[in-house]
Amino acid sequence: QIAAHNVPGPASDAHWPIEPDKLEPVGIDEEIKSYLRQHPALWLIFMDDIHVDKHAFVRQFLTAVAFKHTCREWPDPIQRIEVCLFLSPHFTGDEVVVAADALFGNELRLSSAAISLRELAGLEPAILVRLDWLPEQQLSENYKATVRLNNDAGELMAQIDDFPLGSLLPPATWPANETKTGYMSVAIPSDIAPGIYPLTLV
After folding, report:
1. How far apart are CA 46 and CA 84, in angstroms?
2. Which of 71, 78, 85, 161 is the most buried (most CB within 10 A)?
């Protein structure tokens, strides 16, 4: 349960303008990993981030090391604000390990996968998909992964598309023979009926 992590309400004019400090990427990666080890979820607020975090390092790094579940606009009359929820891979609960040995493009192997279900207070529940990738050589292209949730009739219920580790580390930059773990979160629609649904990776 992460009820304490619900999205806050609209900003109050009394708190604006805010002048946040510029972000220095050096060392912040270990700080983010520490937060993920301590907390089941992190809300990240993006506020005028072109000046604070010019290259969106925090957003991209969290996408590479955690499950990016949702992003939404935060109503504010002064500036555009976006809040994103990232789920820690250290609090997934019971995982179902899936036997996987698929080779893509004769060079990128999916060596293992694990799936878990995460209930979220006030939000759609999430299917968390952990994927272990092994490049068998220097990859010739930047592969993308798509996870789809379909119903029995084959109709698409939910889908997520992204680079396996997000845009911070596109596959063509990975060294050969070094396993990379990616995290993908599929939001389960609130109106979906109980049942068994196929989950596919393409």
Report:
1. 8
2. 85
Euclidean distance between CA atoms 156 and 149, whole angstroms = 6
pLDDT for 100-159, tens place per residue? 889 999 999 999 999 999 988 888 889 999 999 999 999 999 999 999 999 888 899 999
Go through 44-65 and write b for each residue having 16 or more CB atoms within 10 A of its CB, e for each that does not. bebbebeeebeebbbbebbbbb
Q: How far apart are CA 186 and CA 50, in angstroms?
A: 28
Asked, as a colleague might, if the bond just before 75 is cis with ω within 30 of 0, I would say: no
- Residue 115's nearest CA partner among 132, 98, 133 is 98
Burial class of residue 74 (count of CB atoms within 10 Å of its CB; 0-12, 13-18, 19+): middle
pTM: 0.85
Helix (H) or strand (E) holding 62: helix 57-65
Q: Which residues of 48-155 form beta strands (DSSP E)?
A: 67-73, 81-87, 96-98, 102-104, 108-118, 126-135, 145-150
- Which pair of structure tokens corresponds to residue 143? 């592969």
Closest C-alpha to 136, from 165, 104, 112: 104
76 exposure class (CB count in 10 Å sphere: 0-12, 13-18, 19+): middle
**What's phi and psi for 120, nearest 5 deg?**
-130, 120
Residue type, 87: L
